[in-house]
């Protein structure tokens, strides 16, 4: 089983305490890593790989999104790989960072009629796959990434978050 060294940082209010977020993150990211290893034959190094999760608010993620993606608006999740990685490539000792905005997650969960924790779980998996080089810029990439997300979420007992939708590009 792949080993992960998960680092948690809560930068803004409204999130559960770090212990709770760590427990959720460990369960979700370990499930994703195990799925990639067992079903996608994703190679992992023999030592734990470090991944950082930053839990913040809309204003902070808006600033990050404006600086790094030239999109001056909040978003739900941003991923910053430590090193460029193609799907199936072996990660180094530091995988990267995932930044998640609480207000956007909460708003989307209400709009989608989903439980907050279920939507957060989906976004953690989504951000994790981005760190492994998966993307959704082209239709085929989106179908591959969304299929992986759906299968990983199923191992966690969650339904297909994309059911009835075209791939998000």
Automatic annotation (TrEMBL):
InterPro entries, per the entry: MetalPrtase_cat_dom_sf_prd, YbeY, YbeY_CS
Gene Ontology cellular component terms for the protein in this record: cytoplasm
GO biological process: rRNA processing
Example GO molecular function: RNA endonuclease activity
E.C. no: 3.1.-.-
Pfam families given in the database record: YbeY
Cofactor stoichiometry and binding remark: Binds 1 zinc ion.
PANTHER family associated with the record: ENDORIBONUCLEASE YBEY, CHLOROPLASTIC
Similarity remark: Belongs to the endoribonuclease YbeY family.
Name of the protein in question: Endoribonuclease YbeY
Species of provenance: Endobacterium cereale
Lineage: Bacteria, Pseudomonadati, Pseudomonadota, Alphaproteobacteria, Hyphomicrobiales
Name of the encoding gene: ybeY
